[in-house]
Write a structure and sequence with these properties.
alpha/beta; Rossmann fold; 9-stranded mixed β-sheet; 16 helices; about 45% helix; Putative Rossmann fold nucleotide-binding protein DprA/Smf involved in DNA uptake
Length: about 325
């Protein structure tokens, strides 16, 4: 099977990818961004030019840190292993795209900027990501009072012919995804572990052309908290809007990601106006867009609901005790 990736993509996968297990660690996102900046300011410009450079050229001509140059030269020896691994993945129906390919979801580069993943593994029709996208998130423990609301939300999303973005985790995400797919909708499912197994779980939807499965980590990877939190950021980055059914203050990944979103503005977030959930009350006080039960049952589109309820004010200060560790360090 022919690997349809350009040389810039091969370069970033070789130097930064997690597909090949090697004694030399891959470059981090920050390290690669630094290499890319130095390439662009030189006469070499593109990552594919790195294949013709030795350690001295990397250090003396590009000005790359000696340790990073050492890692890059060491990983050059794994090129054959990388090509073999990519071919094996394609034989399993798992493909990969990078920020240097035309089919990479450009919305991620716009919303996440330098935090956008360098590459994605995917199964299914990646062009689904070119449509307007929205996600629905909430508690991992399903609550009967929220199920009806969630069902009405995804029905409205389906009626408006939007794509649902999900992380496929238990609770609200899984319920929303199942309900939406039963309606006949199209979805993007971003996962952070066991992609190979989940490919089988969602095989019917993928085969029907109604789902693309995406992962920024090795398709055989196990669960990892950092990867899971990054996955939630990618879900936000893909979406025009995100609907939060319920969350609790300082509790769980929904709260954590939402607080980060207030700082970085990856997507517009609508929060259910329900005083049973302290997290919802606080998010609305901080400036999230209000969403009522009546709004979802109305004939208004989601965009019209946003226009009706969005309050444009001066930026609300996010208190230190409600920041993510990333925000706190960034300050």
């Amino acid at each position: 099977m022919r690997i349809q990736l350009n040389l810039d993509s091969i370069a970033v996968l070789l130097f930064c990818g997690d597909l090949i297990v090697d004694n030399t660690a891959p470059l981090s996102l920050e390290e690669w961004n630094d290499v890319e900046r130095k390439l662009k300011s030189s006469s070499r410009k593109t990552p594919s030019k790195l294949f013709g450079m030795n350690k001295d050229t990397l250090i003396q001509i590009l000005g790359i840190d000696e340790y990073i140059a050492y890692k890059m030269i060491a990983r050059l020896s794994t090129l054959n292993d990388l090509m073999f691994a990519l071919a094996n993945l394609e034989n399993e129906g798992i493909f990969i795209t990078t920020k240097y390919e035309d089919n990479y979801p450009k919305v991620l580069m716009t919303s996440l900027k330098k935090r956008a993943p360098l590459y994605f593994y995917y199964v299914g029709d990646l062009s689904i990501t070119s449509s307007p996208m929205i996600s629905v998130v909430g508690p991992q423990d399903l609550e009967r009072r929220l199920n009806s609301f969630t069902k009405n939300v995804v029905t409205k999303i389906y009626d408006e012919e939007k794509v649902l973005v999900s992380n496929g985790t238990k609770g609200t995400d899984a319920y929303a995804l199942k309900t939406f797919m039963n309606l006949g909708g199209k979805a993007v499912c971003v996962v952070s572990d066991h992609m190979f197994d989940k490919k089988k779980t969602y095989s019917k939807y993928i085969k029907d052309g109604r789902m693309v499965l995406m992962s920024a980590v090795d398709p055989f990877a196990y669960f990892n908290v950092t990867n899971a939190l990054d996955r939630n950021i990618y879900v936000c980055g893909l979406c025009d809007n995100q609907i939060i059914t319920a969350t609790h203050i300082n509790s769980g990944s929904v709260w954590f990601t939402t607080i980060q979103n207030f700082h970085y503005h990856w997507t517009k977030q609508l929060v259910l106006d329900d005083d049973h959930y302290g997290g919802n009350i606080r998010l609305l006080e901080m400036g999230a867009i209000k969403l009522t039960y009546e709004d979802i049952l109305s004939l208004l589109t989601i965009e019209q609901i946003i226009e009706k309820n969005e309050v444009v004010e001066e930026e609300v200060e996010v208190l230190v005790d409600q920041m993510s560790i990333y925000e706190f360090l960034d300050e």
